[in-house]
Design brief:
By secondary structure, this protein is mainly α. Helices cover 51% and strands 10% of the residues.
Length: 61
């Protein structure tokens, strides 16, 4: 679909549609991960750091 529109000097961009299409083993692996997500210590540390940063940002407002 194209949604290019021009009126009184205003030009709107064409709509971008995003999508993810997986097939075969990729689709199966993605579905299994969504059913039983795994995490690592590094991932948990990243979440803890993000939480601390968000709290410090909220406190500074």
């Amino acid at each position: 679909m194209n949604y290019t529109f021009c009126r009184v000097g205003i030009i709107m961009a064409t709509k971008i549609e995003f999508g993810l299409f997986l097939e075969g083993d990729d689709a199966r692996a993605f579905h299994e991960y969504m059913e039983n997500p795994s995490d690592t210590e590094a991932g948990r540390e990243l979440i803890r750091e993000a939480l601390c940063l968000s709290k410090s940002e909220a406190d500074s407002l």
